[in-house]
Amino acid sequence: VGVPRCGASLHELNKALRIELNANANCVWQIQRNANQTIRLIFSYFKFAPSSSCKTESIKIYDGPSTNSPVLGQVCNDTDAVPVLQSSSDSLTFLITTNSVAFTRNFFVFYYYFSPETKVENCGGQLTGPNGTFTSPNYPKPYPEFTYCVWHIRTAKNSKINLRFQDFFLELDQNCQFDFTAVYDGPTTNTGLIGKVCGRRAQPTFESSSNVMTVVLSTDYANSYRGFSAQYTSAPLPGPVEPNIFLTCSSDSMKIVLSTSYLASLGYNETHLQLNDPSCHPVVTNSVIFSFPLASCGTTKKDEDQSITYTNVISLSATGGIITRQKSIQIIAKCKMENNSTVEAIYITKNNIIQNTTSVGRYNVSISFYDSDSFSKPVLQSPYYVDLNQTLFAQVSLHSSDPNLLVFVDTCIASPQPDFGSLTYDLIRSGCNKDDTVVTYPPLEHYGRFKFNAFRFLQSFPSVYLQCDILICDSNNTNSRCTKGCISRQKRAISSYKWKTNTVVGPIRLKRDLRSADHTESLTKADAEETPNLQQYSFYTLSFVVLISNIIIVVAVILKYHIKCQAGYGYQKIQSS
């Protein structure tokens, strides 16, 4: 176990790190090797300064070789989970920053390379039904090293889950840093940690607040024991009907759907509901539906470092009268735009009791070619046939109802293959023009625009495809990455963009390829039409040749006979008398 003071470059296949940091730290650890494998990174213990916030003190994890790579996740004081992150390649970076409070921070992190296609038998899965059992891999024999198993348990609606480990024996450690089992109250491992256990325990038990529970087993490279045998049962939930609420977030709007039966169980109906802006009314059918643009109906927007959060509140309260014995309820709906997804969360507050649900969506981003720099008429044909060195105009569009977002074209590469394999050519990289013909236009709200001259790849590739990485920022933040333009690798700092994605357009082909294709098609068609005439002409020609040949043969025979006859007579000189 290493104890690096502040940052390191790591190249081992696996390693565990104990990290101690004081105030005002800003340390980077880079994990990289040519392994053609994936990295699993586990923060099994972390202790930040008391009362620190995610803005002032955190661990940020990047999916790549530097802090310029896409953000994979963040760990801070209020992280309610044992963070386990997985890279998309053979490199990964994490940055730890601390605030100015005098306090010794402690972290334990370990990583290992693995092949995702390698499966461990009896490791995780879906468990349904009112009750069931499951065990760790190889139980009762020692569990394998570098194992990460996730079991998702789901029972009937309006029930809760009771989990009991009948036998439990993992590696012992005071903070459960090496081998551990974590239990979550909900469908994911991102939040809702009920408890983390290790060592030898006498039948640890856990209870969920709903019909969904998640169980994790994580092991390192040493000291394996027999693991566990677990059993779960379910029981009905007391009280009112389980909240039947759905939230959908898109880059344009927020949609909240509440069941009338749930409202009735609370003693309310649709007349008791209102958003932050009371003038926004729901549509009532079998459900109560609020659907509105992100930037309307009193929705608030908050810039939270690596994300943008839109929040609105549905208030349920009694109307009329002087007093009430009904509970006042708030449904807090949040759309969190983060990295390459939209995380949606609903919080229901009822006498300080909070319940939540989550789902996932995406921003809507597209790229198109236009016929001029006015960007008024898109090119609809595909493939797009152009002349060599012709100026092409490209526009990236964000389809969102929020007017306070800015689009920035970070990187654009060209390839002759739609899967962007090994052969690529940089047009734009990190906001910098890499091709002499590229001209980028200033960011304009939801549009990123640039132009370049058409080219072709050598080795007779017929097509060119374009793929662009797009950054989306809050336009009210004048210091965001979207306003910085070209930043060289040496000068680049922590990215302040809110979301990153890529989009593809193509293929582009040269017009001469189109003419060549048309000419070939015309020749083929003409040949097909002329084939019967050619066959008839060939028949007449052959007949004529045969007739002439016969005439020549007859003439030759007659001449030969005539010559032969003349050869039978002699010339005799007459003697004079």
Give an account of the 3D structure.
Strand 35 (439-440) and strand 36 form a beta hairpin. The longest helix has 56 residues, at 511-566. Strands 21, 24, 25, 26, 27 and 28 form a 6-stranded antiparallel β-sheet that branches. A 6-stranded mixed β-sheet has the order 30-38-37-32-33-34. Strands 1-3-8-5-6 form a 5-stranded mixed β-sheet, with no helix packed on it. 11% of the residues lie in helices and 43% in strands. The protein is built from 2 helices and 38 strands. It has helices spanning 260-265, 511-566, and strands at 8-10, 14-21, 26-32, 38-47, 58-62, 71-75, 84-86, 91-97, 105-114, 125-128, 132-135, 148-154, 159-169, 180-184, 193-197, 205-207, 212-218, 227-236, 245-249, 253-259, 273-274, 283-284, 287-293, 300-303, 307-316, 329-338, 341-350, 353-361, 365-370, 384-386, 391-398, 405-415, 425-429, 432-433, 439-440, 447-453, 464-474, 499-510. The termini are far apart. The chain is mainly beta and 577 residues long. The chain is globular and about 125 Å long.
CA radius of gyration:
38 Å
Q: What's the overall geometry?
A: globular
> What kind of oligomer do you see?
single chain
Kindly report how far apart the N and C termini lie: 149 Å
How many helices? The count is: 2
Helical fraction equals 10-25%
Instruction: Quote the average pLDDT.
Output: 78
**In terms of structural class, how would the helical and strand content be classed?**
mainly beta
Main sheet characteristics? 6 strands, antiparallel
Runs with pLDDT <50, length 5+?
A: 320-326, 339-344, 347-361, 490-498, 519-537, 563-577
Q: Beta-strand percentage?
A: 35-45%
Total beta strand runs = 38
